[in-house]
Amino acid sequence: MPQSVYIHIPFCTNKCFYCDFNSFVTQNPQLVWDYLEALKQEMKLTFANRTMQPIKTIFVGGGTPTFLDLEQMRSFLETVQHFLGSHLAPDLEFTMEANPGTTDVEKLRLMRELGVNRLSFGVQSFDNALLKRLGRIHDTDDVYRSVENARAAGFENISIDLMFGLPDQTMEIFRQTLDKAFALGTTHFSAYSLKVEENTLFHTLYQKDQLPLPSEETELAMYLLLIEEMEKHGYHQYEISNFAKPGCESKHNKTYWLNNEYDGLGAGAHGYVKGRRHVNAGPLPIYLQMCKEGLPRVDEFEVPREDAMEEQMILGLRLSEGVDLARFANRFGSDAKEVFGDVIREEIDKGMLEEVDGFLRLTRKGLPLGNEVFARFLR
């Protein structure tokens, strides 16, 4: 049974211009309460008659989970404690995503009291003009204030999300963002290049040739600068886009990269339980209605063995340690080098992959070209 739980809170104060996540802007507090009630029903049906394993990680994502006001936050976290409280592992990692500007000290103290012990702030940039360009509602002052408030409320494990390859972002602007980010002294960073997704304002602008993105060469240079600066400041790159101080890696996200099972709760959430993946209804009216009648599943399917093996390789190669070959053989009863022999040999010969101490991993050369290597493992 899964030892990790993902919970989706889909509400936002506004829609960022690059965002294609399942999120909704609302000024209607009753809709939020209705959603929390539906979530409670889903938790009840999911966990009621199950033999539970100790829960090692909970991750609340969105949307903007800290969109919830104080009473909504209390109600939500008390629901989590009600269904999972007696099954929490002593070393539980309980992460909540937060947006600077939606976290005051009172709300943060409540979150800390009710079990949240790790925060992930969606900062994206320390350049105010760029933040406006992205449709973010915060500025850099909000970031400093939010991190200060979080520490005052007792949070020590704090992560920051950054983005690069943004419209009109130069190497110098990105370097300044990194300098300001390091000055905060947080324990973890996630840093992603911008992907222009369909059904976003950025996609519309891109199609009209009105989105001045940096060249691929500049984007690669930003990524290499990121890796260099993170190492210099004592952040170990444990995954393609993630960097941590020793012992502060995201245990929850490693659940995904190790291709382990997890429960997914909330509108549009995905889960992976007993070798089966499930997908919840995304649109709020459908999710709310389905929760009144049972589980809000719109799809559920067994993952074929071949697909599971591919996923194990592609997800595992995202980690700096790579794929544990003994674990692969133990899980599937087959040797990865037999299943993917030609691909592995060719990528090793090209200098993209290497085998070290029983792990198959990307080389320094292969790291920026990870997606091309991953594609080789797809049938």
From TrEMBL:
Record flagged with keyword Cytoplasm: yes
GO molecular function, one term: 4 iron, 4 sulfur cluster binding
UniProt function note: Probably acts as a heme chaperone, transferring heme to an unknown acceptor. Binds one molecule of heme per monomer, possibly covalently. Binds 1 [4Fe-4S] cluster. The cluster is coordinated with 3 cysteines and an exchangeable S-adenosyl-L-methionine.
GO biological process: porphyrin-containing compound biosynthetic process
InterPro entries to which the protein is assigned, alphabetical: Coproporphyrinogen-III_oxidase, Elp3/MiaA/NifB-like_rSAM, HemN_C, HemW-like, rSAM, rSAM_horseshoe, rSAM_sf
Protein's organism: Brevibacillus panacihumi
SUPFAM superfamilies membership: Radical SAM enzymes (SSF102114)
Name of the protein this chain belongs to: Heme chaperone HemW
